[in-house]
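How it folds
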Amino acid sequence: MMEEALLTRARSLASEAHVVTRAALDLAVHLGPSVRFKVPMEGRDVWMEYEPSDSKALTVVFHAAAPEFVKFPWFSGRRLLRRLPSARLSIADPSVTETLRIGWYAGNKDQPHLTENLARFIDTFRHNTGARKLIAFGVSSGGFASLQLATRVNDITAVVVNPQTDIRKYYPGQFSKYVDQAWNGDSALLPTTAASVIENAHQSKPTNSSVVYLQNLQDTFHVKAHAAPIHAGKIDTATSVTFVEDNWGEGHVVPDKAIMSAVLKDVLDGKMGASRAQA
């Protein structure tokens, strides 16, 4: 009965969202209390995993670069959110495959408008599940996707860890591989708004959202190339940014899960992440 109710709800959400190309979601796999389904967006399906909660909060989780051992579709955030009062919607990047491990949710030749379509779907999903608090969480490339969402969806808090903010400023070899496999080698096809958080923010309507930005100060590359523009206030004037900075290890090292969990708990409790409109 629970599975039937989840499927009925998923179909309802699909029919009301503007980004899908058919009125039903295909229910694929059940894993305990969670349900996996795919949403058609432009030329490809986007796999998602939803774990409901009695709370009125929804946390959307975007994964980082996929390790070699994972199976696809890959979802992250289960353990981190397991004890927190929030429903979870984990999304698998449709550009990521066994041969392309990072995609930033920035789209591909079949999904050039993935950034906008994900934002519209998540906004619809939030309203139709009755979530009153919306959080986006991601590490590294998943942090980039979370920041992108915060520039397009109202009243959301993005909690990001060592994120990229402009994928064109990432390591050239990794970015070139993404362009080659996702965009047939033509970087001109990649929209500038999909590649840069700042350009996306400047071309979107102000969202009155907030960002909690965790940055490892020993990750020199990300501090200089990606965090510096956000520190300079270039994202937009309507977005409140709170920085949590510390030394967590040499290089692209994330804080302990206990620290990330504590930050998410504070956001869920309203102790961090208030937008300028709410402050």
About this structure: Residues 14-31 have pLDDT under 50 and may be disordered.
